[in-house]
Every structure is written in structure tokens, then in C-alpha cells.
Design goal:
With 455 residues, the protein is an alpha/beta fold. The chain contains 18 helices and 19 strands. The protein has 3 domains: 238 residues, Rossmann fold (3-Layer(aba) Sandwich), CATH 3.40.50; 133 residues, Rossmann fold; 54 residues, no CATH class. It has a 7-stranded parallel β-sheet with strand order 3-4-2-5-6-1-9, with helices on both faces. The relative contact order is 0.12.
Length: 455
């Protein structure tokens, strides 16, 4: 296919060429992969400013998206891609191949660093989904930090730069500039921009006055933000909450666990001994079932299954995409709706994507963690996305919804959330809305000021 880039794609490519380390905060659907590959091609073959390129990405994206983009576009087909995936033997064989771009999943970054140590061979590193390196204590971050001085160019890609707030920014930005803008340690970053607040013996961090503005100003020269609504004429997306009323019996069980932290059963109890466990158990119960201490499933209600059945009936045969978070939700939806399919792994998953985009799957069940990145599912006639279970992660929520509401979509999309009334479902949705407000401020603050080239 011939590549005819949008103006914003040309801008993104040029910024990569002009900036040794850069964060491209491009919302989903803006074609960040092809923009980056175009820059890589120029760096390798025109500028001679890159010799060996490494792409770090989520597994499915590493396995499918990057190689597929090279095959898709005429101007990139000469690039040689080596997929450093699979067993240790397979990975080592892939590293020995003569290639322009080596692609590895982020779970194997620590292994790769250990394999090369100070003989690190990659002068250019692309981190696809940069926000997945937000935890400075994670092994993947520490490994990449070790070899960062040996890398000349770093390109960080994400549509969700600060999914849970500005504390998430330090580690990703450090991988770009080695601490030049936000400080060399997380401790310094916290002390400079935040105030510790102690609640119930737990320390949280509150932003200092004007800290937000100072952080945005500090990273503005190496961060480019673009929002899909500014550059693409996407069809309308409508978000609606569907209230689900619990039966009196189900509500009593819910309130009992919330109050007593225990639901006694003859074979195995349901116990919530920490606040985190309790919130998770209550979300499970809101969806209709809960795991006991033996990982058995205790059924609570079928109210959400009934609501989903109404949605399927109203769709009148059009495909529906459903996101679930709990395995017991998946099992119960599959039992009620035998026509439902899940997205498999590897080549089988690629066949599932093809079948979905050709309207051969009436009900597709996806987990946001496995389906959040790099999947193009917008070619089906699906207009309805349903969140059966509610989640806390803004990043997973936005990425998952963008599987269908993205460039190439021609139909209005309705995102429906099944919200059990007076339950933790409501708290989770409210938390996502608060996080979205904070991230919107960041995106606007570092937004690319390139309106003059849009004509």
C-alpha cells in the first residue's frame, strides 16, 4: 500500500529525526507505528544515524503489529524485521539474524540486558507503550535503566502517558532523558513536586501548588501530544452507563462482605482481609460471582447476564464486543451465550481478528490486558462495546475502547458499562473519570502546536 501520510504523521516523523530522545504521546488510532517506522527507515538508510534498532512492545504487538506494518506499506517493505520471541534458543537465533529492526516483548527486556550487559548492541530503542515502564521498582525499568547510557536514541510511544496521575511520569521520562528534566531519582521527583500525606499509616503524595504546570514545562521540549479528535474526523462515540439492579438476596450478601469482610460457606469461605482484596471481591460480586479461599466460584446473581442479553437482542444481529475482567465472568457469559468467542493467541488469534473484521463472530469476549494494544478491530460492523466488569486502570480502559473507535472506523460507536447499583462498580467508574481529567490536562499542556500545517 502506498503511504500518504497525514500532516500530523509527517510532523511526528520529523520530531523523531530532530530529537535524540522523545516521547510521542499520540492517542490511539493516530498511526504512531508507521510514523515511527518511517523515521527509523530514514535514520538507517538516509541519515545513517542509526545502525541497529530495538523495539520493545507488548507481546501481541511485538509478534504481529510491527512486522505487519512493515509488510503493509510499500516504502517500508525493504526493512528486515527479526522477532526476538519464544524460547531462549529462538530468541538467541533471532538476535543472530541480520536485520534492521529487532522486536522483543517487554517481559524479556531483563533477559536481553543480561544477555549483552555492557556490550549492548542497540543504538536506537523504541519503547512502544512507554507508560508500561512507569514503575521504577520493576525489573524491566531497572534493566533498561542500566543500559540507557549506551543508547543514542530513545523513542517512547504511548497514548496514556500518566494513566494514574503525574507520579507515573517520572520513570518513563527518565528513560528518555536520564533524569535531566524531572530529576535523577523518584525520591527527588516526589520531594520537588509533591507533599507526603499520611492516612491510616499509609503515605500518599499530593501535588504542590503549581507543580502540574512546572512538570509540563519541564518536559515540553521532548514530549509531543496529539489527540485523535484534533486530527481525525472520527464518528461519534457515545458513553452510557446501564444501571443493573441487584436482588434483595444478592444485595444482602454484598453488604455482608462489605461489613464483615467474610462470607461463610460450608466448603470454603469468601474472605477479604485487606482493603485491596475487599475492593476486588466487591467488584466481582457486583458482576455476579466471587472467588472463595479455594479459588472456587460462589454465584451471587445473574443480573448482568440479563442486561447483556437485552443488549444483544437490541443489536439485532450486529456484532458486539464485550470486555470482562474476571475469569468467572468469562465462563458465565460463555455458558449463557454459546455463540461467544474469545481472542486466541498467536496465529489462531490472527485468524480470530480476520473473522471478527469480516463479521463472522457475533459476540467477541476480550480481556483488556490482552487486547488493549495494537489490535485493529474496527473493520467489523460492530457499533456496541460492553464493559461487563468494571476496572480501575484508565490506560487499559482507553486502549481497549480504541480497538474499534479509531482511524478507519466509519460507524458511530456506543460504549456501554454495566453498573451494579450502589456497588464498587460506581466507585471504579468515578475513579476512571477523575484520572481521565488529570491525563487530559497533561495531553493539552504538551500538545503539539502545529495547527498551521494542517491544511
Amino acid at each position: 500500500m502506498r503511504y500518504a501520510p497525514h500532516k500530523y504523521q509527517e510532523y511526528a516523523t520529523q520530531r523523531i529525526l530532530d530529537t535524540p530522545y522523545i516521547g510521542l504521546f499520540l492517542e490511539m488510532g493516530l498511526g504512531k507505528t508507521v510514523s515511527t517506522l518511517t523515521a527509523i527507515d530514514l535514520l538507517l538508510n538516509d541519515y545513517y544515524d542509526a545502525r541497529r534498532v530495538l523495539v520493545i512492545a507488548p507481546l501481541r504487538v511485538a509478534e504481529d503489529t510491527w512486522p505487519r506494518e512493515v509488510e503493509k506499506w510499500d516504502h517500508l517493505r525493504h526493512l528486515r524485521i527479526s522477532k526476538v520471541l519464544g524460547s531462549v534458543i529462538q530468541r538467541r537465533k533471532a538476535l543472530r539474524e541480520q536485520a534492521d529492526v529487532y522486536v522483543i516483548n517487554r517481559e524479556n527486556v531483563e533477559w536481553l540486558v543480561g544477555e549483552f550487559g555492557n556490550k549492548w548492541p542497540f543504538d536506537t530503542v523504541v519503547i512502544d507503550e512507554l507508560s508500561s515502564f512507569k514503575n521504577p521498582d520493576s525489573k524491566r525499568f531497572r534493566a533498561l535503566r542500566r543500559v540507557r547510557p549506551l543508547v543514542r536514541r530513545v523513542i517512547g510511544l504511548t497514548g496514556t502517558p500518566a494513566p494514574n496521575g503525574l507520579l507515573d511520569l517520572w520513570a518513563p521520562v527518565y528513560l528518555l532523558d536520564r533524569g535531566e528534566r524531572l530529576g535523577g531519582t523518584m525520591k527527588y521527583y516526589k520531594e520537588r513536586y509533591f507533599i507526603p500525606v499520611t492516612t491510616n499509616d499509609r503515605i500518599s503524595w499530593k501535588q504542590k501548588k503549581e507543580a502540574e504546570l512546572r512538570i509540563y514545562e519541564a518536559i515540553a521540549d521532548i514530549a509531543v501530544s496529539m489527540k485523535a479528535e484534533d486530527w481525525l474526523e472520527l464518528p461519534e462515540r457515545i458513553d452510557r452507563s446501564i444501571p443493573v439492579k441487584l436482588s434483595a438476596e444478592a444485595r444482602e450478601l454484598y453488604k455482608k462482605l462489605e461489613r464483615d469482610l467474610l462470607l461463610p460457606y460450608a466448603d470454603a469461605d469468601v474472605v477479604a482481609n485487606t482493603a485491596a482484596v475487599l475492593s476486588n471481591k466487591l467488584l466481582q460480586m457486583a458482576s455476579g460471582a466471587v472467588y472463595d479461599e479455594e479459588r472456587g466460584v460462589k454465584l451471587i446473581h445473574d443480573a448482568k447476564l440479563g442486561a447483556l442479553e437485552d443488549i444483544i437482542e437490541a443489536a439485532q444481529g450486529k456484532p458486539i464486543m464485550v470486555f470482562y475482567n474476571f475469569q468467572h465472568s468469562l465462563a458465565r457469559v460463555q455458558e449463557r451465550f454459546p455463540q461467544a468467542r474469545i481472542l486466541r493467541k498467536g496465529k489462531d488469534g490472527n485468524e480470530d481478528i480476520r473473522a471478527w473484521n469480516n463479521d463472522e463472530i457475533p459476540l467477541l469476549l476480550l480481556h483488556p490486558k490482552s487486547a488493549g494494544h495494537g489490535l485493529n478491530l474496527q473493520e467489523s460492523s460492530c457499533q456496541t462495546v460492553v464493559w461487563y466488569d468494571q476496572i480501575w486502570s484508565l490506560e487499559e480502559d482507553q486502549q481497549a475502547n480504541a480497538r474499534v473507535h479509531r482511524q478507519g472506523q466509519t460507524r458511530r460507536i456506543v460504549v456501554l458499562r454495566l453498573i451494579a447499583e450502589d456497588t464498587m462498580d460506581e466507585e471504579a467508574v468515578a475513579a476512571l473519570e477523575r484520572k481521565a481529567e488529570g491525563q487530559e490536562a497533561l495531553m493539552q499542556a504538551v500538545k503539539a502546536r502545529i495547527e498551521q500545517i494542517r491544511s
